[in-house]
Amino acid sequence: MLALTLGPVVALRWIDPPTSSIILQHRIAALARDAPAPVHVWTSWEAIAPVVPIAVVAAEDQRFPTHRGFDIDAIRTALAEAGPAARPRGASTITQQVAKNLFLWSGRSWVRKGLEAYFTVLLELAWPKRRILEVYLNVAQLGPDVYGVGAASATYFAKPPGRLAPGEAALLAAALPNPRARRPDRPSAAARRRAAWILRQIDQLGGPAYLAAL
User: Fold this and answer.
1) CA 23, CA 140: separation in Å to the nearest integer?
2) Contacts from 27-34 at CB under 8 Å and sequence distance 24+?
3) Whether the model pTM is above 0.85
4) Which of 73, 91, 141, 207 is the least crowded, having the fewest Cβ atoms under 10 Å away?
5) Which CATH class is domain 2-211?
6) Do the beta carbons of residue 175 and residue 191 sit within 8 Å?
């Protein structure tokens, strides 16, 4: 398995993936239903406003610059809060989400989680942190049929991602927990509260400078 997967993972450190496994699955499902196809546009790191990466990190994975693919503290918290009546708590890092979105499929199973862990280790070994975050910004679902900040910026705010304001970046990041139900251009009261919390977290982390070492 290592021989079959290491080459593509290493190559994608420099080659921008034109799509992802999750996007392809969405396209196939949309075609079968004669529904709108998902929108996806690749955008390089340099073409994205600096506030966008820090908004996503603040919302999804604040220890991203320092962990090695797995947030042990978040996993412990999720396990401690787990129970028959408890709402499931996510503990996936950005690297884990890249592994799932790029190579795997949606759903919950031990097989998928095992493969996700395998690809997470490969990504952390083969890619620098900035590349992991750049790919995440391009493959993450940010609306019902929208993937990546390039498509989301054009769809919801009619502007390129390099011109996104902090409030707009926070609204995009606020959609990440439930992108199929949330539209950043028509946020609910809960989404607005989430976006406000994200803006506060950005300030507490030190703004885009928090990611300067990536």
Assistant:
1) 9
2) 30/145
3) yes
4) 73
5) mainly alpha
6) yes
Confidence band of 36 (pLDDT split at 50, 70, 90): confident
Nearest to 105 by CA among 121, 91, 119: 119
String of DSSP letters for 78-110: HHHH--TTSPP-----HHHHHHHHHHS-SS--H
The domains of the chain are located at 2-211
- pLDDT in the model for residue 72: 79
